[in-house]
């Protein structure tokens, strides 16, 4: 295994080179059955319990296309402003690999179902247009577990164990044309694109888009050309970059690595590279060679797909509004400033906030938690916001407790802390940590009496016509109550007591 | 008691319906016959006596209970080893699948079982149906019951030999380039390739997906039609299956009237390279059909000469991909798994050991034809030639109802004769291949014995897509006219096999 | 000049994962050369405007509803496996030893 080459600082790299990117995203559809057979697609089922002669590639078995898979592909194509093929075929991509039951992948080659599209992403308030080359249908492979090597790695393994439950699950591969944006924005645009795709796919309802379960996987092609030049450089393909953050990191890394190679007079090798989340580097995979002759030909076991224009228009009518239109609408509904909205988008908090608002929370409160406590935690742990284990339901629950006066913001933050640490439901955390505000008047009055007794000088000042001095008494009560009192309530009771 | 193995399927069904014989008796008679002669013929790779008798008993029980049964219920059948049958060894004639027991039934087998047809066992074939002689079987050559020193044809030589040797009244074959019709011709039996998509390929171990077609083998036209009807029809498990009613094949076989039928003799399928005895019997049969009232004309199909080269591009290309699944990972043979070798190495060693010479030849040819840089010139062009051949057929069918030719250029050749001359072997299928490329129905019917060698000659009928009934119409007319001349069907002239055990 | 060389055949055999022996290569290369000469005829026949044909009837849009059907049991699925472990297919190491 090649150890990471030297890298340049990103600023130095971008001073000399312009990056050119291409992104291939594989999305697992959320159909009930596989692309070519009736087996279920549940994630996490016991090994080899969701297979049949077709998806195991048993001799004699034949594929039949899942209509919902085609429908989803068309929806995705339409949402990406693609043309939808009037007639297209599946093709066999021939190569040997133990996790591929037939040793060919049923895919599409020169006749994708959707092609020539575009979409937009917003980064730092700027809109970037991304051209879509194609979106095509194919099937997933089985899953190998590697045994006998270090930490489950394929390198050094003595053998592997294959589970074919995943084999045949429908995939849509979405391929961009080359993306050329200002170098310092490149990685962020790539990240925004993948994040936008996730939102889009969720809105379309065609995929669960669980990146942690591998239902959205990204391959990033990166090449560099000298600044101002139009000659394309040699590209590398970094495989399976499986979180938004790693899309950004992996692309940045490849830019800095390739820049180092080029600026020292070397040549970038056209190859597949692997991204290592833990060390933040890519390493060389196999080199592309003539051996990658996939011998594509039209799948003779399937007949062409020719979606009628009526069907396509019916599907178009079901599409949710475009992300940019939706964003504008939400911003207006929520009354956010441009800056606030940008923070929300950049923080990947749009969908969580939408979901939280739908549960009755005010947009401002929803934004406060998602961009505050939760974003901070996500950032610290290097996780995506939606992978934290705290969802809109819980945010709404906590906010409700605040609204009811059971919690104040400070206590609420502690509840989130508990939620993130997996300590249970908000109610359980409040109970365990003893966090609820004391709403029992008698306990507050006792504390007020203690504060008055302990601060005769302050009382004197208040009585002598300086009501503002009462603030010190409230502070004392709050301290006494270890923060678990509603300050407004304390003020009210204190005022009554002091007769002001 | 009469020898039940000499009866036709239709006669056996009648005997069982009228209570004169039970399915167990009929099945046992055929199992006994297999035990007696298969040592010489080697038509079977696996005899499932237990399963067959259990199936027969179940049919008898149902019949005794007064249940309504399908026309062929209780009749035994030999199944080509290329179709999966749950729990019964299925090898496709290859070492690479030795011992594999499929966990599922092919659609053909499902329909046979549903019709109460008793499956005696699996028949020998060229490995993965690649061949015209059964010499490419990994399990030994089948012998032609007419002359044990000769091949029975292929790839379905086992199925045709089994019915020709009276080991079964019916058999299932699969036809990719002639694998039902050519062995039918060589063994003096009837072999029908239905319209592509007329019978389901689900569970048929694929050779060439766009060509493979399961179909019936029998000693009479009516038997073939009855079996055809039992297995044919739309199957949602096969995307290429045609969702239309099955042509009225049984009716056509019973009717057998060719008066007014327009028959075209294909000019290009005859002459040089055709054995004189084959041509003589063929032309006599054409004469006979004329006498029966058919209008016969000569028809030209100029692109048929390119059928063979197109076929030997399409078939190996598809086969190279279809056979990639035999990789030693999930089923079948595994060679060289010593804890050191990689999966890739084990796959390569297994395929080297598990595939025979012809299979390797075609996989490599297909791999070449699909390689980047060659695809357009080879596979792409070959698919265009299919269009030209289909147009030749379409043009001919404007003039005539069916086309006819000899089924094969020669009669059955001697074992070993062509084994190392692939091109000579490929030329066996000159007459049969065009119908696979165009997908239309075609059949071979016995039309006599060649003077030179006294071996059977096949009369080939090609009918339009989904007009399978026309094949039977012609076959039945020919069969009854010839039987009148001979005093019985051609099979009655076959030499008696020595009963060895 | 042959239309296919021994080296090309060896390359194709690697692509097709068949570990041919030298004897087989010696035998196969000239045979394939002959066959390729035969099949090569097709390249001259059809004009550019001839569409390809793949099946007897030009079917389109054959699809199934997105519904589940019973699977094989894991025992059935693994019944033909040359080796198995933990209800999975056991296969040799995927990468060559470095």
TrEMBL record, chain A:
Its EC number is 6.3.5.-. It catalyses: L-glutamyl-tRNA(Gln) + L-glutamine + ATP + H2O = L-glutaminyl-tRNA(Gln) + L-glutamate + ADP + phosphate + H(+); L-aspartyl-tRNA(Asn) + L-glutamine + ATP + H2O = L-asparaginyl-tRNA(Asn) + L-glutamate + ADP + phosphate + 2 H(+). One of its GO terms (biological process) is translation. Residues 351-498 form the Asn/Gln amidotransferase domain. Pfam families: GatB_N (PF02934), GatB_Yqey (PF02637). Keywords: ATP-binding, Ligase, Nucleotide-binding, Protein biosynthesis. The keyword Nuclease does not apply. The keyword Repressor does not apply. One of its GO terms (molecular function) is glutaminyl-tRNA synthase (glutamine-hydrolyzing) activity. InterPro entries: Asn/Gln-tRNA_amidoTrfase_suB/E, Asn/Gln-tRNA_Trfase_suB/E_cat, Asn/Gln_amidotransferase, Asn/Gln_tRNA_amidoTrase-B-like, GatB, GatB_Yqey_C_2, Gln_synth/guanido_kin_cat_dom. Belongs to the GatB/GatE family. GatB subfamily. Allows the formation of correctly charged Asn-tRNA(Asn) or Gln-tRNA(Gln) through the transamidation of misacylated Asp-tRNA(Asn) or Glu-tRNA(Gln) in organisms which lack either or both of asparaginyl-tRNA or glutaminyl-tRNA synthetases. The reaction takes place in the presence of glutamine and ATP through an activated phospho-Asp-tRNA(Asn) or phospho-Glu-tRNA(Gln). Heterotrimer of A, B and C subunits. This is Aspartyl/glutamyl-tRNA(Asn/Gln) amidotransferase subunit B. The lineage of its organism: Bacteria, Bacillati, Actinomycetota, Actinomycetes, Propionibacteriales.
TrEMBL record, chain B:
Its EC number is 6.3.5.7. It catalyses: L-glutamyl-tRNA(Gln) + L-glutamine + ATP + H2O = L-glutaminyl-tRNA(Gln) + L-glutamate + ADP + phosphate + H(+). GO terms for biological process: translation. The keyword RNA-binding does not apply. GO terms for cellular component: glutamyl-tRNA(Gln) amidotransferase complex. Residues 25-471 form the Amidase domain. GO terms for molecular function: ATP binding; glutaminyl-tRNA synthase (glutamine-hydrolyzing) activity. Keywords: ATP-binding, Ligase, Nucleotide-binding, Protein biosynthesis. The keyword Magnesium does not apply. The active site is at 80 (charge relay system), 155 (charge relay system), 179 (acyl-ester intermediate). Heterotrimer of A, B and C subunits. NCBIfam families: gatA. Belongs to the amidase family. GatA subfamily. Allows the formation of correctly charged Gln-tRNA(Gln) through the transamidation of misacylated Glu-tRNA(Gln) in organisms which lack glutaminyl-tRNA synthetase. The reaction takes place in the presence of glutamine and ATP through an activated gamma-phospho-Glu-tRNA(Gln). This is Glutamyl-tRNA(Gln) amidotransferase subunit A.
From TrEMBL, chain C:
Residues 76-98 are annotated as: Disordered. One of its GO terms (molecular function) is glutaminyl-tRNA synthase (glutamine-hydrolyzing) activity. Residues 85-98 have a biased composition (Basic and acidic residues). It comes from the Bacteria. GO terms for biological process: glutaminyl-tRNAGln biosynthesis via transamidation; regulation of translational fidelity; translation. InterPro entries: Asp/Glu-ADT_sf_sub_c, GatC. Keywords: ATP-binding, Ligase, Nucleotide-binding, Protein biosynthesis. It catalyses: L-aspartyl-tRNA(Asn) + L-glutamine + ATP + H2O = L-asparaginyl-tRNA(Asn) + L-glutamate + ADP + phosphate + 2 H(+); L-glutamyl-tRNA(Gln) + L-glutamine + ATP + H2O = L-glutaminyl-tRNA(Gln) + L-glutamate + ADP + phosphate + H(+). Its EC number is 6.3.5.-. Belongs to the GatC family. PANTHER family: GLUTAMYL-TRNA(GLN) AMIDOTRANSFERASE SUBUNIT C, MITOCHONDRIAL. Allows the formation of correctly charged Asn-tRNA(Asn) or Gln-tRNA(Gln) through the transamidation of misacylated Asp-tRNA(Asn) or Glu-tRNA(Gln) in organisms which lack either or both of asparaginyl-tRNA or glutaminyl-tRNA synthetases. The reaction takes place in the presence of glutamine and ATP through an activated phospho-Asp-tRNA(Asn) or phospho-Glu-tRNA(Gln). Heterotrimer of A, B and C subunits. This is Aspartyl/glutamyl-tRNA(Asn/Gln) amidotransferase subunit C. It comes from Kribbella pratensis.
């Amino acid at each position: 295994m090649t150890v990471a080459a030297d890298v340049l600082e990103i600023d130095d790299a971008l001073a000399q080179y312009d990056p050119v990117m291409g992104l291939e995203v594989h999305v697992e559809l959320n159909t009930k059955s596989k692309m070519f057979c009736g087996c279920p697609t549940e994630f996490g089922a016991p090994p080899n319990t969701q297979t049949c002669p077709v998806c195991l590639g048993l001799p004699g078995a034949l594929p039949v296309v899942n209509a919902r898979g085609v429908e989803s592909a068309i929806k995705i194509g339409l949402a990406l402003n693609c043309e939808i093929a009037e007639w297209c075929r599946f093709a066999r991509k021939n190569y040997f690999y133990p996790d591929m039951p037939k040793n060919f992948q049923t895919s599409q080659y020169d006749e994708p179902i959707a092609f020539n599209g575009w979409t937009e992403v917003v980064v730092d308030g700027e809109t970037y247009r991304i051209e879509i080359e194609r979106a095509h249908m194919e099937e997933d492979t089985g899953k190998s577990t590697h045994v006998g090597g270090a930490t489950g790695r394929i390198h050094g393994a003595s053998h592997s164990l294959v589970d074919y439950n995943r084999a045949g699950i429908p995939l849509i591969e979405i391929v961009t044309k080359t993306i050329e944006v200002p170098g310092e924005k490149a990685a962020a645009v790539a990240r925004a694109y993948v994040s936008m795709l996730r939102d889009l796919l969720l809105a379309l309802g065609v995929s669960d888009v669980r990146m942690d379960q591998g239902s959205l996987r990204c391959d990033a092609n990166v090449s560099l050309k000298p600044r101002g030049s139009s000659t394309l450089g040699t590209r590398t393909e970094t495989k399976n970059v499986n979180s938004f953050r790693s899309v950004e990191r992996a692309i940045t890394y490849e830019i800095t690595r390739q820049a180092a190679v080029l600026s020292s007079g070397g040549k970038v090798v056209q190859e597949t590279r692997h991204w290592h989340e833990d060390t933040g580097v890519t390493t060389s995979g196999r080199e592309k060679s003539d051996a990658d002759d996939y011998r594509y030909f039209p799948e003779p076991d399937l007949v062409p797909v020719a979606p009628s224009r009526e069907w396509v228009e019916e599907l178009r009518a079901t599409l949710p509004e475009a992300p940019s239109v939706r964003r504008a609408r939400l911003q207006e509904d929520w009354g956010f400033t441009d800056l606030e909205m940008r923070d929300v988008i950049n923080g990947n908090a749009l969908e969580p906030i939408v979901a939280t608002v739908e549960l009755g929370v005010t947009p401002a409160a929803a934004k406060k938690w998602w961009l505050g406590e939760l974003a901070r935690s996500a950032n610290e742990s290097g996780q995506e916001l939606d992978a934290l284990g705290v969802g809109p339901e819980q945010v709404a629950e906590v906010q409700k407790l605040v609204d009811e006066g059971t919690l104040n913001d400070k206590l609420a933050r502690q509840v989130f802390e508990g939620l993130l640490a997996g300590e249970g439901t908000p109610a359980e955390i409040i109970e365990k940590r003893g966090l609820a505000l004391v709403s029992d008047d008698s306990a507050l009055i006792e504390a007020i009496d203690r504060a008055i007794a302990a601060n005769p000088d302050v009382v004197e000042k208040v009585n002598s016509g300086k009501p503002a001095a009462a603030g010190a008494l409230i502070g004392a009560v709050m301290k006494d109550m270890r923060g678990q009192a509603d300050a407004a309530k304390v003020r009210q009771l204190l005022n009554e007591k002091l007769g002001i | 008691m009469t020898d039940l193995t000499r009866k036709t399927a239709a006669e056996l069904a009648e005997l069982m319906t009228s209570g004169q014989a039970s399915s167990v008796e009929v099945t046992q008679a055929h199992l006994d016959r297999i035990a007696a002669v298969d040592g010489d013929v080697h038509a079977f790779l696996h005899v499932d006596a237990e399963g067959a008798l259990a199936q027969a008993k179940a049919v008898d029980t149902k019949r005794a209970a007064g249940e309504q049964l399908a026309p062929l219920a209780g009749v035994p059948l030999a199944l080509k080893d290329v179709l999966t049958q749950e729990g019964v060894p299925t090898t496709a004639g290859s070492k690479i699948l030795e011992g594999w027991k499929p966990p599922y039934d092919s659609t053909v087998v499902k329909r046979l079982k549903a019709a109460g047809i008793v499956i005696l066992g699996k028949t020998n074939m060229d490995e993965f149906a690649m061949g015209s002689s059964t010499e490419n079987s990994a399990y030994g050559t089948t012998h032609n019951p007419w002359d044990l020193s000769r091949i029975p044809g292929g790839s379905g030589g086992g199925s045709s030999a089994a019915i020709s040797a009276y080991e079964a009244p019916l058999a299932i074959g699969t036809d990719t380039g002639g694998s039902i019709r050519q062995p039918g011709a060589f063994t003096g039996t009837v072999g029908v390739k239905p319209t592509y998509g007329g019978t389901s390929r689900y569970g048929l171990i694929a050779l060439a997906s766009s060509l493979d077609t399961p179909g019936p083998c029998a000693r009479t036209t009516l038997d073939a039609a009855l079996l055809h009807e039992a297995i044919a029809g739309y199957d949602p498990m096969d995307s290429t299956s045609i969702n239309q009613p099955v042509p009225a094949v049984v009716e056509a076989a019973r009717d057998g009237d060719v008066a007014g039928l327009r028959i075209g003799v294909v000019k290009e399928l005859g002459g040089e390279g055709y054995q004189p005895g084959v041509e003589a019997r063929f032309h006599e049969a054409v004469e006979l059909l004329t006498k029966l009232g058919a209008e016969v004309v000569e028809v030209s199909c100029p692109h048929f000469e390119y059928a063979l080269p197109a076929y030997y591009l399409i078939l190996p290309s598809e086969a190279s991909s279809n056979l990639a699944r035999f990789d030693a990972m999930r089923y079948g043979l595994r060679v060289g798994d010593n804890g050191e070798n990689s999966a890739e190495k084990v796959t390569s060693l297994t395929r080297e050991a598990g595939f025979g010479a012809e299979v390797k030849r075609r996989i490599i040819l297909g791999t070449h034809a699909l390689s980047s840089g060659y695809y357009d010139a080879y596979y792409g062009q070959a698919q265009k030639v299919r269009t030209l051949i289909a147009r030749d057929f379409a043009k001919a069918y404007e003039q005539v109802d069916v086309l006819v030719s000899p089924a094969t250029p020669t009669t059955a050749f001697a074992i070993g004769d062509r084994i190392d001359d692939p091109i000579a072997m490929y030329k066996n299928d000159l007459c049969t291949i065009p119908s696979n490329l165009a997908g239309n129905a075609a059949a071979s019917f016995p039309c006599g014995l060649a003077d030179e060698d006294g071996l059977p000659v096949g009369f080939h009928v090609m009918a339009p897509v989904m007009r399978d009934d026309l094949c039977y119409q012609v076959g039945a007319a020919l069969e009854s006219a010839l039987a009148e001349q001979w005093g019985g069907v051609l099979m009655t002239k076959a030499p008696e096999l020595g009963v060895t055990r | 000049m042959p239309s296919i060389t021994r080296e090309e055949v060896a390359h194709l055999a690697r692509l097709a994962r068949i570990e041919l022996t030298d004897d087989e290569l010696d035998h196969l290369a000239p045979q394939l050369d002959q066959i390729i000469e035969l099949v090569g005829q097709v390249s001259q026949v059809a004009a550019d405007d001839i569409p390809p044909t793949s099946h007897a009837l030009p079917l389109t849009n054959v699809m199934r509803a997105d519904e589940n059907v019973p699977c094989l049991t894991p025992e059935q699925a693994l019944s033909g496996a040359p080796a198995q472990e933990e209800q999975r297919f056991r296969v040799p190491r995927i990468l060559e030893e470095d």
